[in-house]
Design a protein that fits this description.
By secondary structure, this protein is an alpha/beta fold. It folds into 2 domains: 285 residues, Alpha/Beta hydrolase fold, catalytic domain (Rossmann fold, 3-Layer(aba) Sandwich); 69 residues, no CATH class. It is built from 13 helices and 13 strands. The strands form 2 sheets. Strands 1-2-3-5-4-6-7-8-9 form a 9-stranded mixed beta sheet, with helices on both faces. Helix 5 links the parallel strand 6 and strand 7. Helix 1 crosses helix 6. The radius of gyration is 22 Å and the shape is globular. The relative contact order is 0.12.
């Protein structure tokens, strides 16, 4: 490698690192080793399966759970936003949307709840939203060598195996899921979906960095980690730069795994937008760090999208002409993607912005990997085996219709009336 090339690479790494750390406008508590999790290190002999050690209700649909994680070897807090009337709808199961934070993820709250209107915006959504707490500089991945004494840093195992299993056992989750995140969390969301393609039906990245192995990017990730967690190292995470493990975690190199999924990718350009204070330089915002952050997110997201197109992967892209790396834009992008998320996970109630009146009546959900009748619809089939035989296997999970809930089958559909609790058979014509 030439001397000039090494110099350019070093300079690029420094610039990228500055553009990977979350904007300092967001105030976050100190992230020391002692704060890695509310229950860190309190148990040594965890059960083979993750279990709940504590539950705290904030409202009828907002709850915090503390989980003993064998994979992480410590306790983790996860906050849940539940569907409306979840407690009353005891026989129903729901899809799950996992939402990930950014590089400076706090240890006692999720930025999605603190800085956006996600609680209000999803008040009528028929899905469970799971928001892991913590994970600063972790990229929500399995680390080869943990830098924490009381945390094994096996995030992928926790998020893709332990947590989904626990939510199915204890919180009536079904087998349908989606995952999304901002900045570092956007990188992780796409990577986790590529590495676990059977688990997720929807994947979203809001200002994520979707190219992790191009020249200068590994060094930039390392510097960004150290900005938040000085004892962290990118090589402790995935090993020597650009080895097989790095390539296995590069979103742009593994786009084939996303074929057939509902995908939403967004970013701004970094230029001064409606939420930014302008500087003396035309189009450049006063917050130069947030500008560089979003510029790099934009470049890498477009690189990812171009590669995905080559591989025949379709997606929704929202590449805004302005806007920096900040929460108000992420709130807007999440709100813009919500109808797509709803359609992907359960058929999509409250998706008026992008669906016709005819679509609203039927609202069929895409065929899930393992659908199963539950509640009154399931009871009706159990008590009427001839009807079950006539209908054949299910082709969707339950979804909302004006009168209640419905489920599609190979030869028709069943509709449950929320007022009369009667189940009506509609044969396929």
């Amino acid at each position: 490698m030439s001397r000039n090339r090494r110099s350019a690479r070093s300079t690029l790494a420094i610039v990228l690192a500055a553009a990977l750390v979350t904007t300092p406008a967001v105030v976050v508590p100190s992230l020391g080793a002692a704060n890695i999790g509310p229950m860190a290190g309190v148990f040594a002999d965890a059960n083979p399966r993750a279990s709940i050690s504590k539950t705290k209700w904030h409202s009828d649909r907002h709850v915090s759970i503390w989980i003993k994680s064998p994979a992480m070897e410590c306790g983790r807090q996860v906050q849940l936003l539940l569907p409306p009337n979840f407690k009353q709808r005891k026989n129903e199961r729901f899809p799950v949307l996992y939402m990930l934070d950014g590089m400076r993820a706090a240890t006692n709250y999720t930025g999605w709840i603190k800085y956006t209107n996600i609680i209000k915006k999803t008040a009528k959504s028929q899905m469970i939203i799971a928001l892991p707490i913590g994970g600063a500089s972790s990229f929500y991945t399995n680390w080869q060598k943990s830098p924490e004494k009381k945390n094994a840093m096996q995030w992928e195992t926790f998020l893709t195996k332990e947590l989904p299993d626990l939510l199915r056992r204890s919180w009536r989750a079904n087998d349908v899921a989606g995952i999304a995140g901002l900045s570092m969390g956007g990188t992780a969301a796409v990577t986790l979906a590529e590495r676990n393609p059977k688990l997720y039906r929807f994947v979203g990245s809001y200002s994520g960095y979707l190219d992790t192995t191009s020249d200068g990017m590994p060094e930039a990730i390392d510097k960004a980690m150290k900005e938040v967690k000085p004892n962290y190292s990118a090589e402790m995470m995935w090993g020597p730069y650009n080895n097989k493990n790095w390539k296995a975690h590069d979103p742009k190199l593994n786009t084939k795994a996303l074929r057939g999924k509902s995908i939403y990718i967004s970013s701004g350009t970094g230029n001064t937008g409606k939420y930014d204070k302008p500087s003396a330089i035309s189009s450049i915002p006063e917050d130069h760090t947030a500008y560089m952050l979003e510029l790099m997110a934009n470049i890498t997201s477009k690189t990812f999208a171009a590669e995905a197109k080559k591989q025949g992967v379709k997606m929704t892209t929202n590449f805004r002409e302005t806007g920096t790396h900040s929460w108000r834009y992420w709130q807007d992008d999440f709100n813009d993607s919500l109808p797509q998320i709803q359609r992907a996970l359960y058929g999509g109630k409250n998706s008026q912005n992008t669906r016709s009146a005819t679509e609203k009546k039927a609202a069929p959900a895409p065929k899930p990997a393992n659908c199963k009748p539950y509640g009154d619809i399931g009871a009706h089939l159990k008590n009427n085996p001839d009807v079950a035989k006539q209908l054949g296997p299910c082709t969707s999970d339950e979804y909302d219709v004006p009168e209640g809930r419905a489920q599609n089958f190979e030869n028709g559909r069943l509709v449950w009336n929320s007022k009369t609790r009667a189940v009506r058979l509609e044969e396929k014509t």
